[in-house]
Amino acid sequence: MSESGARNAPHTESAGSLPLARRRGAAWQRLLPWGITAVCFFWLYHNVSAAAARQHHELIPYLLSIFERVDWGSFLAIVIPYSLFYFAIDSLVLYRVINWFNARVRYLDILPVRASTYILSILNEQVGKGAMAVYLHRREGVPGWQVGSSMLFIMFCEFYYLLAWATLGVALRWESLPSVFHAIPLVTLGAALWFVFHLLYFQGSILGASTLRDRPLLHAFRQARPWQYATIVLLRSPALLAGVIAYTLVMRLFGVTLSFGQVLGYLPVVFFGAAVPGPMRAVAITLWTVLVPAHAAEMAAFGLVMHNFFIFFNAAVGLLFLRRAQREIFGAAL
User: Fold this and answer.
1) Three-state SS annotation for 236-275
2) What rounded mean pLDDT belongs to the chain?
3) Which helix (H) or strand (E) holds 317?
4) CB atoms < 10 A from the CB of 12, how many?
5) At what angle do helices 296-330 and 125-140 cross, to 10 degrees?
6) Lower Cβ count inside 10 Å, N or C end of the chain?
7) DSSP assignment of 185-211
8) Which of 67 and 49 is assigned the larger pLDDT?
9) Residue 139: CA atoms inside 13 Å, Cβ hemisphere, count?
C-alpha cells in the first residue's frame, strides 16, 4: 500500500462506520419511548390486577365496571371546554415567543398551524415543533435553528412554571401529600439558583470567555430578558389552573374524590410525566396510580381516558385546520 493509501485507509474506515453509529443511535432513540411505555404498562397491569383481586373480581370485568359508572355526558362537558381553552393558551404562548424572537405573525395565523401540529404530536412532540419551523421558514424566511431556539425557550419556561405550581401545591397540602413530594422545595431552590446563573451567563456578566452562549440554537436566550421569562410563566398558568379544576371534576366521575388543593400538588408532577416521549402518555397514567394507590384501578382508567382524550381531541381540532395549514406550509412550494 502506498503512503497516501495508508493515510487514507483509517479515514475511509471511520467514514464508513459513522453512518452505522448514527443508525444505531437513531434506533436507540426510537426504541426508548416504547421501552418506557412497556415498563409503565407492566406496572399498571400488576397494580390494577392486584386492585381487582382485592375486590374479588377479574381484571377486565372490574375495569369495565369502572367505565360503566362514568357519566360520559358530564365528562365531555368538562374536557372539551378545557381542551379548547388549553389550545388557546398554548397558541398564545407560541405567538408571544415567536413575535419576540423570530417574526411578526398574527395570533390568528398561528392557530391553524399550531392545531395541525397536535396531529403530529400524538406520537412525537418534536415532529410537531418541526412543522412549526417549516411554516415560519416558508412564510417569513426564519431559519429553522432560530425557531428551534424559541421552542427551547418555551420548554425552559414550562419547566419553571410547572415547578413553581408544584411548589405551591406542596406548600398548601404538605401533610396530605406523599413524602417524596417534600423534596420539591429543594428542587425549586436548586432551580432558582440555576436560573440566576442562567441569566447572568446569557447577559455576559459571568464566564465572559465562554462561546457556548453564541451558538445559533441559543439565540432566544441571548435576547430574552427576565420579564419575558415571567410573562411566559404567567401566560401558561391559567391553563394549569383550568386543568386542576377539570381533572378534579373528572376524577369524581371515576369515583375518586380529591380536593382541588391535592390535585394542584399532583398535577404539575403528572404533567412532567406527560412530557416524557412515548405513546399513550404512559408515564403520566402510571404516576396517577402511584400518587393515589388506594384507587389504582380507578386512577389508571381515569388517566388513560383523560390524557388520551385530550391528545386525540386536540388532534381532531387540528384536522379542522389541516387544509389551511397545508396551504400555509406548502403553498409557496406548489
Assistant:
1) HHHHHHHHHHHHHHHHHHCCCCCCHHHHHHHHHHHHHHHC
2) 82
3) helix 296-330
4) 10
5) 20
6) C
7) HHHHHHHHHHHHHHHHHHTTSS-TT--
8) 67
9) 21
Q: What is the pLDDT of residues 127-185, one digit of tens each?
A: 666 667 777 777 777 777 788 888 889 989 999 998 998 888 888 878 777 777 788 88
- Residue-wise pLDDT for 83-123, tens only, equals 999 999 999 999 999 999 988 888 988 888 888 778 776 66
As a whole number of angstroms, the distance between CA 6 and CA 42 comes to 54
How far apart, in whole angstroms, are the C-alpha atoms of residue 232 and residue 155?
A: 10
Q: Are 150 and 220 in contact (CB under 8 A)?
A: yes
Query: Among 235, 258, 228, 251, which residue's Cα sits nearest to residue 307?
Result: 251
Measure the CA–CA gap between 44 and 36, rounded to whole angstroms: 12
Q: How far is Cα 328 from Cα 212, in angstroms, rounded to an integer?
A: 34
Rounded Cα distance between 164 and 114, Å, is 26
Average pLDDT for residues 42-61, to the nearest whole number?
80
Section 1-12 average pLDDT:
46
Chain-centroid distance, C-alpha 236: 13
Task: State residue 56 phi and psi, 5-degree precision.
Answer: 60, 45
> Is the CB of residue 318 less than 8 Å from the CB of residue 128?
no
Task: List Cα–Cα distances, 122 to 76, 126, 278, 317, in angstroms.
Answer: 20, 10, 9, 13
Asked whether the beta carbons of 1 and 9 are under 8 A apart, the reply is yes
10 contact partners, CB below 8 Å, separation of at least 6: none
Residue 292 DSSP symbol: S
Say what the pTM is: 0.82
Selection from 116, 105, 102, 91 nearest residue 150 by Cα: 102
Domain ranges (residues) in the chain = 35-333
| pLDDT tens digit sequence for 224-236 | 999 999 999 999 9
How far apart are the C-alpha atoms of 194 and 201, rounded to whole Å? 10
**Locus of grid cell 411548589:** 167
Q: How far apart are CA 94 and CA 146, in angstroms?
A: 14
- Cβ-based neighbour number of residue 105 at 10 Å: 18
